[in-house]
Structure formats: structure tokens, C-alpha cells
């Protein structure tokens, strides 16, 4: 039986773990959290940080796995790449992992290859930060160079919140560096793809909904995008150019773009599976392509198809909207579960726990996933169900 090592046991990793089990693999999961949800489905578990290179390399020597993967998280990709190079596995290179998980290095690589991006600067100290602000006209976005899930991302729209933005982004930066870039205005999309032996296959373009200023947290997604075919063609070309610029030769990618008045521009590229249940649920239901299965098979050396037959139906996810306070209860009527369009409804916060206003992916408390004739109608179905769910907050 082949073995696969999965870095991370959070809720977002569970579909990957379950898929590996369905493929009859021996699944080893590592996570520093002893109560990680994914441990319930693993054959073997280890309480190790997903970014502890030394301990994971030592573990890999002992278990002699056939592949190493993760889903929906960036920094463990550095560890995966390091292990891949040491043990000759089918992973991205360590150089690519660094360029894909450090937003400043990513910007530099994309700029070098003329991939459309916003104007940007990097800063570590407050003095460098204020110097950077002078170099970019208009509103800016401030973010850590090495975080994900919208953590530390904030809009700077006046001098009054410049210092607040610096401290907020700095709090989430492991390296201490923060990126300052011009605010891009336009519709947001993400692109789910897989690269096989250097050739990138676009599987889906996802339309995104965000909370808007100041945190721009993602509150919904739907597939397939309702943009014009001409715009989608431009998005696909820029995405492939960005993946090539970062030298991603194998594996899945999750690329985020904004459709500005000057055309699509890259927000960032993740050299990994998309999060927010996009890859695990929306792509699978809307396209018929199981990117989790493909990524697992690719990681252990299985041969993948050269072409994909992509379905064109709709799937969407919408997150609950919540304010700060104590979550006293969530009431879901029976008719919700009878809805033929419902794929999943889930609560991710504990009743009686303190919850905050949505400012990043970790502050969301639940979601609804629905199917539909197309992406937009699938989102309408989510909205309809959400109206029937009552959330009690004090």
C-alpha cells in the first residue's frame, strides 16, 4: 500500500484526507493541534507543526512515504518543496515555493516576466513604510508578505489609518515584512488549475464576493464565472503566464486576479489547492474534475490524463454574515435540508463562543454550498437558504 503524508489536519484538509483514503492509500497526517479534525480520518497522526522542516524531514525518513501534500495553506509548501528535493518526490522546487509564498518575491518574479500586477513596495520598519506610501498614488492595500486567508490585509484610504494599517499587517507577518501596493478596483476572480509535466490546464474560473473595505475577506464564490468569453480568455492567458513565471512545473495552482480598467491583474498565485471549499466542493460539482484526486495521484507518481472533459453546471458557496458578540444559537429549519439544490450546510463556530466581525477567513462561522443551472443561480440558491437560517448573537 502506498503512503502519503499530509501536512495539516484542519477542516479544510479533511476532504483531501478522505480522498486519499478513498484511493486506498495509507494516510499520515501531521498537525500541531492535537484536536485537529483531520486526525479522525488518518491511519497515523503526529503532533508536529506543518512548518517544522527538521521534524517533518525526520518523520519522512522513518515512514518512507510515496508523496507529501497539503491543501489550502501556503507556508507548508516550503516544507513540502524541501522534502521533495531531498527525497526526489514530485513536488515544486524550493525556489518556486519561496516565490509563491512570499508576496514580495512573487511580485518581483511576475514583474520580471511582464505579468500584469499593481504597483508595489515592501517595508519592515515604520520609516520604510511611510516612504513607500509616498511612492504610490491613491488608496493602497497593506498586507503581510507571508500570510493567507486575508489575514492582515487592510485598505489605507486616508492618513488617519496609516499607522493602524501598519500595525495590523505587521501583526500577521512572520518575517516582519509587509507589502504596500496600489488598490486595484474591479471584479475579483480566482482560477483553479493543474500543471502536468510543465503544461498548465485551466479547470475553472471562480467569481468571488468579498466583504469590501477595509479587510476584503472572501464571503462567497461561484463557478462558472459569468464574465464574457473574451475576458475569460485574457484571465486564462495571464494565469498561465504567471504560473510559468514562478516556474511551477507540477501540481495545482490557485490564482487570484482583479479585472481592472486596464485589464486583469494578478493579486497572487498559490502553488497549491484552493481553499474555502473551492477546490474540494465547487470545482468538483461544477466541472466534474476532482483536483484533490488528481493532486494525490500526481504526488505519488501516477499518470494523469492529457485532457479533461469539463462540465458546465453551477456551484456556489456563501458564508454566514455575522457581527461581534456571543453566538447563542443557529436555527436551521428542516426545509433547508429538503432543498434539492443544497450540497452542504455547515457550522464552524461553537455555540456560546465569542465571535468577531468577519475580518479574515478564520472569523467566519459557517457556510452554505448549493448547485444551480449556472454559477449565478447557484449563488441565488445559497442566498435563499441563508434567509431561512436564524443566527442569534448577543
Q: In a nutshell, what does this entry contain?
A:
The protein is α+β, with helices and mostly antiparallel strands and 394 residues long. The chain has helices at 14-22, 53-63, 76-87, 94-101, 103-112, 126-135, 162-171, 229-245, 278-287, 291-299, 334-338, 375-388, and strands at 3-7, 26-30, 44-46, 67-69, 120-123, 140-144, 154-156, 178-182, 187-196, 199-210, 218-223, 251-260, 263-270, 314-319, 325-331, 342-347, 354-355, 366-372, 390-393. The mean pLDDT is 95.
Task: Describe the overall structure.
The protein starts with a strand and ends with a strand. Strands 13-12-9-10-11-14-18-16 form an eight-stranded antiparallel β-sheet, sandwiched between helices. A four-stranded parallel β-sheet has the order 3-2-1-4, sandwiched between helices. It is built from twelve helices and 19 strands. It has 394 residues and is α+β, with helices and mostly antiparallel strands. Helix 3 runs antiparallel to helix 4 and helix 4 packs across helix 5. 47% of the residues are buried.
